[in-house]
Structure formats: structure tokens, C-alpha cells
């Protein structure tokens, strides 16, 4: 019984140590971009890895709030050639903070993805009129 338990533990250790580990390095990020409409919304992307799902690649998106108040925004990350049908995501980000999301896309390493911003509010609550462009 002791030998069987030891063998099982050894097999588990080999399995864990031989499993691939995905490292997320800050150096893999693209440069920070400012949206064409809102000077306080910055974003960047990185290619993380090819997945085990046929034809899928994992991409990371980071959004940063450079405003001095809480930011509420609708957004989408699109692959080249895809049309924006609707904004699927809405989130809020505190002043000076960042938000990270990952996507499974068919776009491979070196491909083009586009970040779109929809309705934006800046303030303590996500109510009232949407903010107009402040970067023009």
C-alpha cells in the first residue's frame, strides 16, 4: 500500500512538473494607445498564446483610466475584417486603475485587433447623459 501511494505521488509530481506553464510578461504588451475620442482612456493588447482549441489564439486587453473620476464604458475588441454589431462588454474602472480581459480569437500572432469604445460616463455613478468626445 505504501509503495502504491508513493508511486501515485511520484506520477502526480511528474505530471505537474511537465505541464506547460504560460508566463505573462509585461514586456509582451504593445504600447499604450489613447482612443481617438477620449483622452483619458488608454488601452493596449498582447498576444498570449496559441490555444489547444483548433484555430484559436488567446489575446489580452488592458484598459487604463487616466481620468480623476470613476470611468464607465462600453467596449469591444474586434478582429480585422469583423464588423461591430454591438458592444458586448460594459465595465467601470477607478481613477488611475487598469482592467484586464482575455479573448479567444482566430487572429494569430502578428495579426491586427481593434479596440472600440461605446457609451462613456465619468463620475460617481453610471447614470445620466453619456459623455461627449473630449479629445477633439
Please provide a brief summary of the model.
This protein has 1 helix and 7 strands; from the N terminus they run αβββββββ. The protein is mainly beta. It is elongated, with a radius of gyration of 20 Å.
Protein model, in words:
The protein has 136 residues and is mainly beta. It has a single domain, classed as Immunoglobulin-like (Sandwich), CATH 2.60.40. It is built from one helix and seven strands. It has one helix spanning 2-18; strands spanning 33-34, 41-50, 57-65, 71-79, 89-93, 98-105, 113-122. The strands form two sheets. The chain has a four-stranded antiparallel sheet, with no helix packed on it. A three-stranded antiparallel sheet has the order 5-4-7, with no helix packed on it. A hairpin with a 6-residue loop joins strand 2 and strand 3. It is elongated and about 45 Å long. The chain starts with a helix and ends in a 14-residue tail after the last strand. The model is unreliable at 4-26 (pLDDT under 50).
